[in-house]
Specification:
With about 220 residues, the protein is mostly beta strands. It is built from no helices and 24 strands.
Length: about 220
């Protein structure tokens, strides 16, 4: 299965434009944003756990990265409330579940070679840095060329977001914004090629952003 695997073109995917698809875990559904492979795949998805649902224990051979969007995600290592960012490195294993239900944004098999640290960033962790009065940034992860951050734009802001040779990836979390001319409501996902992209918002917004994760350098 191949979904949005041409990284040379811009992808703009509003939340409501993608259907929920059942998964092997009963009560777990996903919106497939990008995917290269079958059930084991390099993938980016929004995943929804119904209350009381779970997945069988499994190994992440090439790593897992996720941001909890709503509710509380759980596994045998702990509870992860909304706003928590987690990286489970290649070779890690867990048995995920959610007692009360949750929604997460998850990326599978997309670690750069050599990135082996587990990372958990809870909502109160980290430091927001304001550079120009319009944008505040909190770094979530950095390894090699890869940078993962949360960005908050003040109302009536117009900024240029630096990209990378492989472009930039964005998930809008709150508020509305325009990116490279595309209107983005909450939970819109974008992938834009090129070294930079323009963004503007009238009401203010917060979004997750990733850059520097050159596909050719990811673990196969």
């Amino acid at each position: 299965m191949k979904i949005r695997t041409d990284y040379s073109v811009r992808e703009h995917v509003p939340f409501e434009s993608v259907a929920w698809v059942v998964s092997p875990g009963e009560g777990v559904e996903r919106k497939m944003l990008e995917r290269d492979g079958g059930e084991v795949a390099r993938a980016t998805s929004i995943v929804r756990y119904a209350p009381g649902s779970s997945f069988a224990e499994h190994v992440h051979e090439r790593g897992e990265e996720f941001l909890v969007l709503e509710g509380t995600f759980q596994d045998e290592h702990g509870d992860y409330p909304a706003g928590t960012y987690v990286r489970n490195p290649p070779g890690s294993r867990h048995r995920p579940f959610s007692s009360n239900g949750c929604t997460i944004f998850v990326k599978l098999r997309q670690f750069l070679e050599g990135d082996t640290a587990r990372r958990v960033m809870r909502p109160g962790d980290g430091v927001w840095v304001t550079e120009d009065g319009q944008a505040a940034t909190k770094e979530l992860h950095a390894f090699g060329s890869e940078r993962v951050s949360l960005v908050e734009l003040a109302s009536n802001s117009t900024v240029v977001l630096p990209g990378s040779p492989s472009g930039i990836e964005i998930l809008v979390l709150t508020g509305w914004m325009e990116v490279a001319g595309a209107a983005c409501a909450p939970l819109t996902w974008l992938r834009c090629p090129g070294p930079a992209v323009g963004a503007r918002t009238e009401s203010g917004c917060r979004f997750w952003v990733k850059r520097g994760h050159t596909m050719e350098r990811m673990l196969a």
